[in-house]
Design a protein that fits this description.
Layout: H1 2-17, H2 38-46, E1 54-61, E2 64-71, E3 82-88, E4 94-107, E5 111-118, E6 133-139, E7 149-154, E8 161-168, H3 181-208, H4 219-237, H5 244-247, H6 259-263
Parallel strand pairs: 6-8
Antiparallel strand pairs: 1-2, 2-3, 3-4, 4-5, 5-6, 7-8
Length: 270
Amino acid sequence: MKVLSCVVGLGLLVMLCGGDTSTDKSPTEKCELLHENKSERKILDELAPLLNKNFSVMKKENEESYTYVFQFCGDADGVPGAGVVQINDKTKAKTIVGRYNSTKAIKGSDWVMLIYENGAKYNSHCNGANRKAIVMISCDRSTDTGPLDVVLEDRERVECFYLFEMDTNIVCPVIESKLSAGSIILIVGVCLVAAYLIGGFLYQRLIVGAKGMDQIPHYAFWAEIGNLAADGCDFVCRSKNREEPNAYRGVGSEPADEEPEERDDHLLPM
Ligand SMILES: *[C@@H]1O[C@H](CO)[C@@H](O)[C@H](O)[C@H]1NC(C)=O
Ligand SMILES: *[C@@H]1O[C@H](CO)[C@@H](O)[C@H](O)[C@H]1NC(C)=O
């Protein structure tokens, strides 16, 4: 029963330690979600370490070469409103692939899919729809933020999008408990000792009917252990010989008055 309550207490402790801290102001408010909601906003906020950085990648496509620049909730390559921008390396013409005022975010166990919609319209492809950028951000514990990579621009589909990939440790699942294994073992140990002491005490008192020191469970055993430990410590830790102080007793001030008398008591004729 005590063990059970200990486990419950432990659970409460873990819950307290793992409590989340939520603030009202979002660091990613520049990103407007297509449908503002708490869960998507939370995903964006978790990506906050990516803020204020341009990520770019160059991609050759037939004769042309393009550079793509991605910025999280900010003007990519300085183009107002653009989350992802495509730059034609020859003509330097910039095309907005997706805008951060039209954001969606989806989170998996170790990845986040960031979608910027409402980019510039396609001319002939994709039914003249707006361009759309999908940035796949995946967990990689070995890197803060890896390089941006562009996977494909598939124009033959019904729904077109530009797909980018990036590795980062930001989206890696957090280790659930904030208590280290050592402290958990310690807490469990303390719980067990407490259960032993309380349970043993109750057993000795109520069932055996012990009084005084005997109420301590296995009192004789622990007393013996205590003596052994004390002896061991005495032997190991004491630097001077234990008998030494006695040798000077006679010289000391206080005991000098009484002890000699006691000592030669036996010499007196009775
Ligand atoms: C991103 O790049 C553009 C163009 O080079 C620059 O104007 C802007 O300040 C950069 N933003 C950040 C946060 O580095
Ligand atoms: C995003 O910004 C663009 C350009 O300012 C605007 O045309 C578009 O309507 C905006 N979209 C949303 C969802 O606010």
